[in-house]
# Entry
Amino acid sequence: MAFLILSGWHIGYLPVAYAQRWVESGRMRSILPATYRLNTKFELVTRRGVALTLVSQTFADILRETTGALCC
# Structure
């Protein structure tokens, strides 16, 4: 999708972090970001009493760092 947008002939939604390098280099820009912004809610569900694997714990840590504290 990014390469179609970079061609100058297409527009589309990209995650801000994904598009950041092209925005910083001036190759891409946001169009009305206050109007056309896609907010996504992430939720993580785990089984109580079962230890998370390293991958799951790493994902939970990243989620906590980027979105705020996890509940419960």
